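Page 37, top half.
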Amino acid sequence: MGVVIRSMLWGAAAGTLLMGTLMTILELTIPSDKPSPVLATIIAVLFLALVVGGVPGAVIGTAVGFVRRSTQRPPAPRPVYAPPHPQRPYDMWSDLVERCAESTRRVAAAVQTVPNSPAKEWLQRISEQLAKELDDVRGIAQLGRALGAVDRQHPVYQRLLKATHDFHQFENEVGRVALQMFDHPELDEARTHLEVLEKQLPQLST
């Protein structure tokens, strides 16, 4: 129930009660030459109390309810000023690092699809080795930033570009071997493919 309706009902009840009490006191204290029947007196008191006290009380209560409702409204939130985020300058090193990271994630996801077997465990170790090589990729990129190199012909950039190519090529090879292991998951069948794949791992730290 709303604040206005509650205030109106309380006002009507208070006005009726107050006026009814006052008229009852007057009826009992002022003697009358012709006493009215008790039932008629009660009905008359209730009617007059409702009209004279209840109606004005309801009006006053309604006004009070509108005032209370207006004071209870939460203030509108003030817009918070947020300074614009500074745009990061283009970083050609991060682009190449992210390409290698994507290849590493795709290789790990491809390994998980292979049926469980000793051959899969071998393939997982190869995938973990690739993830370690990713640290070297980040180190090469950090070297390029430290030197302030911006020329794409810079030897550091060319080294990182080759690493990106090697990671992508290795990703394709893992996909090919994983597909063959679906049909031949046995270690003896997959051994040759895994040995070749292990030799093709990007070796950036050497």
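Page 37, bottom half:
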Amino acid sequence: MKILSWFLVFFGICGLVGVRMLEDRIFYDPFLNYFHEADQLLAFPGFEWGKLVASHLFRFVLNLIFSCIIIHFMFRNKEWTIQGAVLISIIFVITFPIYLYCISDQFEIGYLFSFYMRRFVIQPIILLLIIPLFYYRKQILLKNITQD
């Protein structure tokens, strides 16, 4: 059973990597090249609000699914998986409107600020905090069990 769990964790990681590798083919994001070039003097790209928002929401859902697979099969705890999904969703709900404001302001608020807001929207960065948090939590619970 443990081998299957680690295989599914690996599947979740491959899913996140696949989302990242195929981002230019499966998502509508005219800002990929804009930020990839890292040149603030490039012309602000034209875009369609509806397609952009829908694409980011679709990407969020894919990242959330693969992140939940990783969390669930690493810790085999349904409650923690739900907590991880809620934490990831909270970060998205906070950062997505900020990023959309940055776009509407044509990144006048700041190029780097907009760049990092975009990172929180399109990448599951919070997963890098959740995994150590839950690992520490698991160790504390195991320590308390052995002390009783």
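Margin note: The longest helix spans residues 49-75.
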